[in-house]
Specification:
Elements: E1 4-5, E2 19-36, E3 39-57, E4 60-71, H1 79-88, H2 94-97, E5 100-101, E6 109-119, E7 122-131, E8 146-148, H3 161-168
Length: 191
């Protein structure tokens, strides 16, 4: 099943360091309609593993991870579109804008720039930019791949609890558009 697209935080945890990191997408989750200051919006979450930044969990070294919430939109000013175009290294074509399967980014490496922002008494690590990997650089592989949509719930248990809570708190049932992504790419763009 495809995921067609037209704030993290809480608890005490080690922050991803500020700066630009090698990353690989390991999670794409459709979290449905979420309440925003502009009213209900269809939201998605993308998660990246940072293989060069590790953390010890249960006595085992694992890559640190960071997530970004996006409105599921490819409109001209949408953050999702801007980050995807920067990640791809080129703009979307009109054909691609008619329907793009966001699950294509799973396993695709990139560079993410992380900044720390304060809110109240807490500091959060946030993704401020996503860009393409430089040519010639080794491409990391994700240690896992998690995709979730209302039509494909097989990986529900693989989602972090905070994402499960967001999905459960949707403001209204998801309404999907049946679109297909173009399949006739013959360039070296990763998605």
């Amino acid at each position: 099943m495809a995921l067609m697209v037209t704030d993290t935080g809480g608890g005490d945890f080690k922050l991803v360091p500020q700066g630009t990191h090698i990353a690989v997408c390991f999670l794409v989750a459709d979290i449905g309609m979420q309440e925003t200051s502009y009213g209900p919006k269809h939201k998605v979450i993308i998660g990246w593993e940072l293989p060069q930044e590790t953390i010890e969990i249960g006595g085992e070294e694992k890559p640190m991870i960071i997530y970004q919430n996006y409105t599921a939109s490819l409109s001209e000013k949408a953050n999702l579109r801007q980050d995807l175009e920067s990640w791809r290294g080129r703009a979307f074509t009109p054909q691609e804008l008619a329907g793009f399967d966001l699950f294509y980014v799973l396993g695709v490496p990139c560079m993410v720039t992380v900044v720390h922002n304060e809110s109240g008494q807490k500091t959060y690590a946030n993704v401020s930019a996503v860009t393409a990997m430089p040519k010639g650089m080794d491409r990391p592989k994700a240690t896992r791949a998690v995709k979730y949509s209302a039509e494909d719930v097989d990986q529900w248990d693989d989602l972090p609890e905070w994402i499960q809570k967001k999905i459960s708190a949707q403001t209204e049932p998801q309404q999907k558009q049946a679109m297909t992504a173009p399949q006739d790419f013959d360039d070296d763009i990763p998605f």
